[in-house]
Each structure stands twice: as structure tokens, then as C-alpha cells.
Amino acid sequence: MSLAFRRTCLLAALALLAAFAPLAQPALATGFVVSSFLDRGAGTLRQAIIDANASAGSDTITFSGPGTITLASALPALTGGSISIDGTFPAGGTVPKIEIQGGGVIKGSGILIHSSNNTVRGLILNGFIGESFGVSPDYGGAGITSAARPLVASPPTM
Questions:
Q1: pLDDT, tens digit, for every residue of 83-141?
Q2: How many domains does the chain fold into?
Q3: Which among 115, 59, 114, 67 has a CA at the least distance from the CA of 84?
Q4: 155 inside domain
Q5: Which structural domain, as residue segments, surrounds residue 45?
Q6: CB within 8 A of 86, min separation 6: which ones?
Q7: Considering the entire predicted model, what is its pTM?
Q8: How many Å apart are CA 129 and CA 28, to the nearest integer?
């Protein structure tokens, strides 16, 4: 190959790189604040999960204050990946201040995870009916079910 041909190829490659490099930007993190302790609607945990699942990049769900959310139906699964739900107040603390109550009528876990790189911390999950596969149901059931591996759970440090 001649030197002129190599220079032309190098210049063409640099021109392509310069043209497409601005398009390759990382997705920005999005924050969602739960301001309503109702089961559904604007500002609820349910809506924050729906919005985070639809959002590109990392997402953080925090709460405007301590409280209890009593659900009428199961929450949507975390499917967007890289979603963090922080139930401590203020966010980043060590004491759980958000309770999610299943009311003894919702089968399954309080939080269902179907994607990777998610963090759930500082939530109190109560009153969910554990799936028992034909045996008597566990009416005190609560927890987090993850289809993504590995699932690492640890209590907050006091």
C-alpha cells in the first residue's frame, strides 16, 4: 500500500469518528421523587417505577418523606435496569422509613426485579401473600424476588 492511500484511509476514518462521536453520549441519570403515598397516580411509587423502566440510563427513586403505601395490586416489576429505590429518609440514610403494605391480598413479593444492576434499600415490606406452590399460603410474606443474578441483600447498617 502506498503512503498516500494510507493517509487517505486514516483521514476518512478520522472524519467518520468526528461525525459520529457527538452522537455516542451516555444516558443521563434521572431522579424520581415519590410525593404521594397513594397506590396509583402522579407522584406515586407505582408511577415512578413505570417512568424509571421507560427511562434510559440510571434512575433513582426516592421519597419526599416517611410513610406507608398500601397497595391494591402488585407493583410493576423493575425491568429497566440500573434502577435504585431508596426507602431511607433522608435518602442515603440508614433507617428504613417507607413501608409498602400488601394488605394480605397481593400474591407474590413486594418488589419484583426482572433486570440487572438494581438497588433496593431501606424499604419495609409487609402483608404480601407468599407463593407456596400448593402448600398453605404465607400471609405474612414480604420480600424481593429477582430474576436477575446475583441477588445480594444486606440489612442497613445502624
A1: 999 999 888 888 899 999 988 888 877 888 888 899 999 899 888 887 655 554 544 54
A2: 1
A3: 59
A4: no
A5: 27-146
A6: 60, 61, 62, 63, 92, 119, 121, 122
A7: 0.72
A8: 37
